[in-house]
Write a sequence for this structure.
């Protein structure tokens, strides 16, 4: 393709088609409801937190730290792929439009994150920094401008091959950002902003443009940055659903090896054997199980309302069950499994075995946590509730899932 | 029963209206190693997929020990071992676990499994790596895992797709020696490969697959006779048979 602008549009829309598909899965996974719940709880405790926060809390320094980090981090997404190292490098001279589009795109995305962070911190801002809505918006706009400068400068910076110099440049930007962000949140007079902005622009033209003229693009680094961005997205999506591209990440967790002895050496146990290893080592199924159990247990011990605690227990048990459910797809793309002389019933039995096992473990943990904090009666109720959720999952939901599976 | 593997007039491919294979027939007998030879895209892997039962033929049928897969899926698969072109490993399992899992899946006794597995590990010089995960393996080591898994289950017929790729010379020798042993014991072997010199040395018969059709098959003598090239080696015959095609 000779038209770089067209190529850029295609790359972006390809990425978003993929991303939207995952975002939809995340939306359907029941996790949004948890976020909503957190939001409701969160906004209640936020007010209390602000009242508790001592007057001496250095709010301006706090904002400076957060936003220095936010403006310095993040690089321009180029959507470059491995193959571009060969096919696009000859066009390097004609890519300025492509790169401008990339910077603009990254700027919009980063401004979104800045705005989100500002909104989350807004109550603190109005309470401790300034009560004026106008200064909130002005600061946000200027932060977004600063971000644009960082992206543009950061992009030229990647041309410096030497790792150490590359890192030094990032620190340099962090220093400049810190000064600018501090000036913003400590609400200095406008002429100081104008001065800083002017200085930054001159510095960009005088220094970074010169780098751009001297050094070529470092393609491998750009591809690496792109891959990291995509991987971060995959990793987030992976906590909600199964991302095939992440399959390769394995944690050995040798301390869990004794658990595998639960499965004896018999032909009917083949899937039990496989699912044990995929659950505890692959895709971080186990990590998610652990996190949901710990967070669930934490909520159970701090929520004082009886029905709120029951709801939390049921909700976390259900979310965990949904996560373990995805385990059944783990070997769908493996050709070797298809060749084994086995019946599909073995697979379902193997999958169910681990849901039952993990369900009992989690229900016990929830039950014990509740009985330690609210007495044995509560513990029993929570235990029964969690077990009921798993039973529902096993007897009602799973058979339907298996059916759709065998039909396809 | 004279044939271990009997492929009867299969036509097949990924799409019904675009068959990749056209009326392919051949068989593999006990005590026989058959070389499946063809250019990239000739249909070797598709043929193998049909034999493995991963694809259904549009026409014709594949029988293993006289039975089709539709008649008894588990029996059909029980008698078959496959060594794929690219090693297909479970990243979350150690080498030993791969062997153990394979043994379980094919219903081996535990003692038999342990005895065979230890011998194979020694033969392929992998004993030290038994507890390793595939992420620490080179391409050749991965291939060895596939080969050991196939040898572990001792089926009647072996299907090997480019088994030498990535193997070191000692690995290739162990592999071929073992194959010859199995042939002596009465197994049948179908091996697809591009390394014609090795194929010529080890295989009893050859199938030339070209654009989805078998254009020639037989022993070395039969091939020379059919191609009217007495004394020619496999390379020459193969180049000659696919020649006209490259000129148009």
């Amino acid at each position: 393709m000779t038209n770089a602008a067209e190529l850029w549009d295609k790359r972006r829309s390809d990425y978003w088609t993929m991303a939207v598909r995952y975002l939809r899965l995340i939306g359907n996974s029941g996790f949004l409801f948890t976020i909503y719940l957190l939001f409701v709880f969160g906004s209640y405790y936020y007010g209390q937190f602000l009242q508790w926060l001592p007057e001496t809390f250095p709010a301006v320094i706090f904002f400076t730290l957060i936003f220095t980090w936010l403006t310095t981090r993040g690089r321009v997404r180029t959507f470059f792929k491995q193959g571009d190292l060969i096919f696009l490098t000859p066009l390097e001279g004609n890519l300025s439009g492509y790169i401008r589009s990339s910077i603009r795109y990254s700027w919009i995305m980063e401004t979104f994150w800045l705005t989100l962070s500002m909104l989350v911190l807004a109550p603190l801002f109005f309470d401790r920094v300034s009560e004026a809505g106008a200064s909130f918006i002005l600061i946000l706009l200027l932060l977004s401008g600063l971000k644009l400068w960082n992206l543009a400068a950061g992009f030229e910076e990647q041309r410096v091959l030497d790792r150490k110099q590359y890192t030094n440049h990032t620190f340099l930007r962090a220093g400049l950002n810190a000064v600018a962000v501090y000036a913003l949140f400590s609400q200095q007079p406008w002429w100081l902003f104008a001065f800083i902005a002017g200085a930054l622009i001159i510095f960009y033209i005088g220094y970074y443009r010169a780098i751009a003229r001297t050094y070529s693009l470092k393609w491998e680094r750009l591809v690496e940055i792109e891959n990291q961005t995509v991987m971060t997205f995959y990793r987030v999506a992976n906590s909600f659903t199964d991302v095939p591209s992440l399959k390769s990440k394995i944690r050995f967790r040798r301390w869990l090896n004794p658990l595998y002895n639960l499965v004896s050496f018999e032909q009917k146990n083949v899937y039990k054997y496989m699912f044990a290893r995929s659950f505890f080592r692959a895709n971080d199924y186990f990590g998610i199980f652990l996190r949901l159990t710990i967070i669930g247990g934490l909520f159970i011990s701090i929520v004082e309302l009886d029905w709120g605690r029951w709801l939390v227990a049921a909700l976390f048990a259900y979310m965990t069950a949904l996560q373990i459910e995805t385990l059944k797809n783990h070997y769908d793309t493996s050709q070797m499994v298809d060749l084994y002389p086995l019946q599909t019933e073995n697979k379902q039995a193997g999958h169910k075995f681990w849901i039952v096992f993990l369900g009992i473990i989690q229900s016990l943990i929830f039950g014990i946590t509740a009985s330690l904090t609210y007495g044995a009666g509560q513990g029993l109720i929570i235990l029964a509730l969690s077990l009921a959720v798993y039973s529902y999952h096993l007897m009602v939901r799973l058979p339907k899932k298996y059916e759709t599976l065998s039909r396809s | 029963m004279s044939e271990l593997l009997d492929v009867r007039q299969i036509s097949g491919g990924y799409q019904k209206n675009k068959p990749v294979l056209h009326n392919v027939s051949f068989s593999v007998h006990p005590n026989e190693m058959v070389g499946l030879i063809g250019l990239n895209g000739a249909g070797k892997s598709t043929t193998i997929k049909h034999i493995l039962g991963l694809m259904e033929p549009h026409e014709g049928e594949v029988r293993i020990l006289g039975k089709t897969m539709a008649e008894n899926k588990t029996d059909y698969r029980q008698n078959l071992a496959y060594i794929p072109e690219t090693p297909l490993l479970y990243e979350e399992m150690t080498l030993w676990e791969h062997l153990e899992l394979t043994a379980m899946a094919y219903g081996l006794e535990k003692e038999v499994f342990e005895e065979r597995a230890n011998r194979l590990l020694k033969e392929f010089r992998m004993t030290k790596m038994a507890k390793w995960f595939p992420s620490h393996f080179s391409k050749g080591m991965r291939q060895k895992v596939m080969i050991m898994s196939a040898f572990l289950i001792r089926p009647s017929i072996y299907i090997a797709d480019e088994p030498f790729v990535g193997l070191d010379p000692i690995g290739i020798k162990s592999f071929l020696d073992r194959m010859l042993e199995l042939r002596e014991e009465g197994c049948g072997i179908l091996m697809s490969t591009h390394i014609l010199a090795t194929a010529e040395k080890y295989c009893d018969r050859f199938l030339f697959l070209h654009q989805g059709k078998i254009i020639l098959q037989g022993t070395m003598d039969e091939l020379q006779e059919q191609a009217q090239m007495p004394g020619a080696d496999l390379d020459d015959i193969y180049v000659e048979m696919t020649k006209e095609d490259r000129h148009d």
Summary: Chain B has one domain: 5-86+156-247.
